């Protein structure tokens, strides 16, 4: 029997599944309509993004004609989340094509020590998993929630702020280490250091002048440091006003709670609470703070948290959990932490494990606070 022999299901039951394996130079396109054994695989290699996307649409239309599919057949496209982000999904959806962005880590793979892996095989596996997912086998892959263009763009405000802060610290640390090689321990944090360096007032340990090459490098470092500090100051002045109205409202509501500052509230509003959650489990899973047990036969191991999702939010929540313990001593979360760590003495590991649980509970409590207006149990608000 021909492997590509087509049966005739009802037209409304036909789904043309398409998967894209994205690379810098070319894309692999795998198509499967469920009526044949093997999917069709094509390659598009146009240099421009728009031309490459149009080539994918042309391949879909050609395959529809070749397989005699109805004109109104349902088309579902999927591709793995990566450096191309979500523009392909938005472009396809604007053309009326259903598209899903897949978490690459959620796709099951063979556990052979040596397994074949090519872009063609990956595209085939993805389109087969897509058809299984459409039949209801949700464990085949996990779909990424696509943010709106505004939500995605707004994240850059806090991410750029964090990057500028990192650059400022890196410049200062680099200058401090360069000076230490000559026994000079002048403070580089104050703005007068650049002037002292320009007037050749910074000396080595024995009072001699700095080598010209090192001095020139330090002057260039000072210029880059001044530029980063200038950009950071300008961003701080306009950061709160640049937030979209919904995110600004969420940020203001979070900042009313003791233990949550304005910067942390803005980061949570932009990085986490831009999306809607159905239950507390989704909140914990989104930030990667959900426990991952390993219970098989006689083996029962606690693997720790999943560490999935947004690592920036996860680190922020752990840091915020420590400040919550300090500024909200009467809250239910703080009392729970104290009861769990009571009697551990100098065992810091027990406290570090417990604080992760506090971070997950805090994320859920803040979600309920924003969603339903329920103030965390025992929490205090900042005075107006």
Which fold name corresponds to the CATH topology of the largest domain?
A: Nucleotidyltransferase, domain 5
Please report the distance between the alpha carbons of the first and last residues: 78 Å
The domain tally reads 3
Radius of gyration: 28 Å
- Percent of residues in helices: 40-55%
- Beta percentage is 5-15%
> What is the count of DSSP helices, taking H or I runs of 4+ residues?
12
Order of strands, widest sheet: 3-2-1-4-5
Summarize this structure briefly.
This is IS110 family transposase. This protein has 3 domains: 130 residues, 2-Layer Sandwich (Nucleotidyltransferase, domain 5), CATH 3.30.420.40; 91 residues; 127 residues, no CATH class.
Describe how the helices and strands are arranged.
Blueprint: E1 15-21, E2 27-32, E3 40-44, H1 49-66, E4 74-80, H2 87-94, E5 98-102, H3 119-134, H4 149-180, H5 192-198, H6 212-242, H7 245-255, H8 262-271, H9 280-286, E6 291-296, E7 299-305, H10 311-327, H11 332-341, H12 348-372
Parallel strand pairs: 1-4, 4-5
Antiparallel strand pairs: 1-2, 2-3, 6-7
Helix pairs in contact: 4-6, 4-8, 7-8, 8-10, 10-12, 11-12
